[in-house]
Specification:
Elements lengths: L4 E6 L5 H12 L2 E4 H14 L7 H9 L3 E3 L8 E3 L2 E2 L7 H11 L2 H14 L5 E5 L2 H5 L5 E6 L2 H12 L8 H17 L12 E4 L5 H13 L3
Parallel strand pairs: 1-6, 1-7, 2-6, 7-8
Antiparallel strand pairs: 3-4, 4-5
Bound molecules: cytidine-5'-monophosphate (C5P).
């Protein structure tokens, strides 16, 4: 098929979803936040006390998890078994659990399968950790985003502070560092730059500059 797939990978809180959303909106592509899927699975695991060392329990849980996106406005709206969980998956309990859950090979296999299905025939922008390496190794364009860790923590803090005044900048910094460590060192499709991915360090770039950077590269594909 000749649909366009833009894969955006990178470290935690690098602005991947901000760029992915802006790009999808501008080009009228579908936007898929793959991290939201792992977060929703983590929420289910938390609520149901799934034992992560028990493979049968993991498989059973995955059979009982049904995820759906409703991306009517390019924001992430995700349901877990028909319950809207878009807010809850951003809270600290899920952020603290998600990287462990995402390291499970059964979980990855199932999520990757669903993600590949979404990119079958439509133009799509998907962000995550393994989109250019495992989900769409033949993506039309691959971006790998990085930014200074303290800049990343500050941005995330500014984003959630009003709704979560109890969370400190330090909590966020530590969570980001923890997830980066987990995500880059896990056995199953770790976070790594695909050889053909373009690096985008946005420490000193505005969202508008990042969008221009990506648009120019998409334009160059044509
Ligand atoms: O993108 P976001 O930060 O919301 O992702 C949450 C977590 O989900 C990541 O820290 C990572 O552990 C996991 N993830 C992943 N593969 C993806 C997307 C997210 O392992 N494609």
């Amino acid at each position: 098929s000749n649909n366009i797939i833009v894969a955006i990978d990178g470290y935690s809180s690098c602005g991947k979803s901000t760029l992915a959303k802006a790009l999808a909106k501008k080009l009228h592509y579908i936007y898929v936040d793959s991290g939201a899927m792992y977060r929703a699975v983590a929420l289910y695991f938390l609520r149901n006390n799934i034992d992560m060392s028990d493979h049968a329990q993991i498989e059973e849980a995955l059979k009982n998890i049904h995820l759906n996106f409703h991306s009517r406005d390019y924001e992430t709206h995700i349901t877990l078994n028909d319950e809207e969980v878009s807010e809850e998956i951003r809270q600290m309990p899920v952020s603290e659990k998600v990287s462990e859950v995402a390291a499970l090979k059964e979980v990855r296999r199932e999520m990757v399968k669903q993600q590949q299905r979404m990119g079958k025939s439509k133009n799509i922008v998907m962000d995550g950790r393994d989109i250019g390496t495992a989900v769409f190794p033949h993506a039309s364009l691959k971006l790998f985003m990085t930014a200074d860790p303290s800049v990343r923590a500050q941005r995330r803090y500014d984003e959630i502070h009003l709704k979560n005044p109890e969370v400190t900048l330090e909590d966020i910094f530590e969570n980001i560092a923890h997830r980066d460590y987990q995500d880059t060192t896990r056995a199953e499709s770790p976070l790594v730059r695909a050889e053909d991915a373009v690096i985008l360090d946005n420490t000193n770039l505005t969202p508008e500059q990042q969008l221009q950077f990506a648009l120019e590269r998409i334009e160059a594909l044509k």
